[in-house]
Specification:
The protein contains 17 helices and 10 strands. The protein is an alpha/beta fold. It folds into 2 domains: 7-143 and 239-361, D-Maltodextrin-Binding Protein, domain 2 (3-Layer(aba) Sandwich); 146-232, D-Maltodextrin-Binding Protein, domain 2 (3-Layer(aba) Sandwich), CATH 3.40.190. The strands form 3 sheets. The chain has a 5-stranded mixed sheet. α8 links the parallel β6 (169-173) and β7. It is globular, with a radius of gyration of 21 Å.
Amino acid sequence: MRYTLRLSLLCSLVCACSNPSPQTDAPGASAPHAEAANSWPIATPKVSDASIAYLKEQGWWPLKIGYFADVPGFSAHWAVMRADQMLERRGLEVEYQTFNSGPPILEAFVAGQTQVTHYGDFPFWSTVDKGVPAVAFAVTGVNNEVALVVPNNSVYHSLDDLRAADHELVIGTTLGSYAEFYLRSIPGLKYHIAGMGMRDAQVIPQGVDAVAIWDPHLSFALEKGLGRKLDNVYPWYFPTAYEFARGEIAEHAPDVMQALADATEEALLAVRADPDRAANVYCEDPRAKAWSPADVRTQIDRYLTLYKPTYKYLNADFWAAEDARVVAAQFDAGRLTHQRSAEELKTNFAPQYLADTYARLGWAVPAKPVFLPSDWAGTAGQPPYPTYLHAGGAPQAFPEPGDLVVK
């Protein structure tokens, strides 16, 4: 028996996160990084002339991509994809735009200003409900920590204390985000939301009993001693975000979707191979200047290199079951016009592209999300959830038995 597709090279690449290569000077976007560009162990086919013609007919040439410059645990690989021209090498002309908050990145996609983007499941389904065709081809980030943080002088010292409060709590967070859904998932918590962005919430402003904030803002607040963490999201909800494109691209130019899937995995491997360089590249964006390369490296370690690289695979049954809760909550709150079942939600998932990527890499498609232990006894959509691997745990080894395709 033999493992396929130069897996000795691939193993050295994907395991590099535990022994990163020396830091190099980060080049500009016009000059692909030789080490990252040469590390992709399979062919890099170019998209067809017919698909390019279709994009041009739609006014989508260059293809416009939006990603977060303020959530490196979601986005560091996008910055590397951009710097190393991974989509350009596949025959696409691309323009990238970065965003610092959820509403603008959502509005850009809904308005047609971007055709490829990523954001959380909560706003993703709102986009679909608006009639905007969106097809998710990968998980962009998963289990990004969200936590309840109280002021240092707060009388509350546990989640039970918050539940026992003699008044309706005021909790600051971003409306329409997965932090809001985290709050909705906690049983017995009486509160109303003071809507605010993460940069305001992370300083734990006066007038709130607590804030619900996500990383890197959570790490910032705790490192600066601005508040105390009482609870986090992990027992209640699997916070995730998707990488997705216009549905018309999946219908009329599927090789463009395949190029996106290949590039997102190639970019992740490049981050794993040289996380210091990835942090530097991410911080070159003026919108990311709030974070130092050290801050970004911490987020890369907590999220992008924590799991096996197959964490990006979109296990449709699992995520549809979890997101059915999200959709039901939005519908009950009057924010969605249609209720949709888990089976209906799966029509907006396209895991086949990454499955094809993995087949060419010689990787097995994970039967369930890689962060779940083999004996996990929970059921997606039915919290509280038993323990699973999340930020703060030991990085997963890759490859392990069963991770590679054997011939």
